[in-house]
Write a structure and sequence with these properties.
Mean pLDDT: 83
Distance between the termini: 38 Å
Number of helices: 15
Structural class: alpha/beta
Low-confidence stretches: 271-275
Helix content: 25-40%
Radius of gyration: 25 Å
Strand content: 15-25%
Largest sheet: 14 strands, parallel
Number of strands: 18
């Protein structure tokens, strides 16, 4: 079971073959363990992509038999199938449908060549009583609305939905048959504007986590008007494009959003300015325990001001930068590292005193050795730290921009040997 759980999805087939070919005893034990056979992948990329062969009808049938009554997870995603593969897949789909009573997580991806209603005619009485998670990768909802309507209406336990409309610049709202009130996790991969993003939150009144991409208003799609929304979300992941119009949408989104329960915020990815970040992180009642900033263009003074506001609640901090971004914006320099350092008993608390997990990638621009000393100061005896109201730093992942951090590397590797989790790398 430990070996199986470490397998990546695309390696499960070969991994199970290895288990079964070890010896007869292992084969008998594996065959009699239903959980091992409960994940099925039928995935094909573009016509130019060289990939392993798809599972045959007989193999899928065997896996379904061996999985017995265990909840099923499967993915059927096709950019292109050969005529022989297409015939095989069309035969396999009804086989999977016969086990819809034990579907738990599914991913479906259909291109223009493979319209689901033509090969997978869901009955009016379709029901998947324990289906929790659905990912849909499609060209449009409109063409196959009957298929998706029956699918989603038959999922009384659905709590997680990922929508990815390929080749569509803006994401329309999912259809009206969507089970909004029971949703806990929602991911909208395609870009959308502030009005649509807020409308989604207003409908999904029990949402726990939300992932979206904010873009400029589309001139050919008229979205709903902006309205204030109160949401119970705790985890928010937002990707933003660099055009000024996109940033205005981000400001509007946060201006009309009241999310007092928000504890984890991941923001950036493409590019964001310090003005946006100041508005977002200064929002009243924001008490984040986890903050992730990707490719942020922000001056040191503004960043320190915002981080100081959140300092007492932050336990996880991640600052990540692409290799192509200049380091003079968004860099972690001597001043910030000194403020994070615990200087001893009786001294003022360091910035983010309850920090337990720290990730810094390609953003450190400080004197060699200073960073390692900061980490060492947060790794003192637990009693000393506790008496001074400071948490023990448990995990550190760091990627230095260049190799001129030999003292930092030596000090960090010593602490990793003493129990600090994580890694240190160099990006050359």
């Amino acid at each position: 079971m430990s070996y199986y759980q470490d397998l990546k999805p695309e390696g499960i087939d070969n991994g199970l073959a290895t288990l079964c070919l070890t010896c007869k005893l292992w084969n008998d034990l594996a065959v009699s363990t239903p959980e091992l056979w409960s994940f099925i992948e039928i995935i094909r990329g573009s016509i130019c992509t060289s990939q392993k062969s798809l599972p045959s009808y007989s193999k899928v049938s065997t896996w379904l038999d061996r999985s017995r009554s265990w909840p099923l997870s499967f993915a059927v995603i096709g950019e292109w199938f050969s005529p022989e593969e297409s015939t095989s897949v069309k035969a396999i789909l009804p086989l999977l449908l016969a086990h819809s009573h034990r579907w738990r997580r599914i991913s479906l991806g259909f291109g223009y060549w493979f319209e689901p209603m033509h090969v997978w005619n869901l009955p009016h009485t379709f029901i998947a009583p324990i289906l929790e998670s659905v990912e849909v990768i499609c060209d449009t909802y409109e063409r196959d609305h009957i298929f998706y309507g029956r699918l989603l209406r038959g999922c009384p336990a659905l709590c997680s939905f990922t929508s990815n409309q390929r080749e569509y610049y803006m994401a329309d709202l999912p259809p009206g048959y969507f089970p909004w009130e029971q949703l806990r996790n929602l991911e909208v991969v395609n870009p959308t504007d502030a009005a649509n993003a807020l409308t989604l939150l207003g409908r999904a009144v029990n949402l726990h986590s939300y992932c979206l991409t904010i873009a400029l208003d589309s001139p050919w799609i008229k979205g709903p008007s902006l309205k204030s929304v109160t949401s119970p979300i705790k985890f928010l992941t937002m990707k933003i494009y660099p055009d000024p119009g996109y940033r205005e949408n981000v400001e509007l989104f946060f201006r009309f959003l009241d999310a007092c329960n928000l504890t984890s915020l991941s923001i950036g990815y493409v590019q964001i300015t310090h003005d946006n970040l100041s508005d977002i992180l200064s929002k009243p009642r924001l008490r984040l325990s986890s903050l992730t900033l990707r490719n942020i263009e922000i001056l040191e003074d503004e960043f320190l001001d915002r981080l100081t506001l959140l300092s007492e609640s932050i336990t996880t901090l991640e600052i990540l930068r692409n290799a192509t971004r200049p380091t003079y914006y968004g860099a972690v320099k001597n001043r910030i590292i000194n403020l994070l350092t615990f200087h001893g008993e009786g001294s003022p608390k360091p910035l983010c005193p309850f920090l337990e997990t720290l990730t810094l990638e390609r953003c450190i621009e400080a004197d060699d050795g200073l960073f390692a000393r900061m980490v060492r100061s947060r790794r003192r005896s637990p009693r000393t730290l506790r008496d001074n109201g400071i948490a023990l730093l448990k995990r550190l992942d760091v990627v230095f921009v260049h190799s001129m951090h030999s003292l930092d590397e030596e000090g960090l590797k010593e602490m990793y040997g003493e129990g600090l989790q994580g890694h240190v790398k160099f990006f050359i």
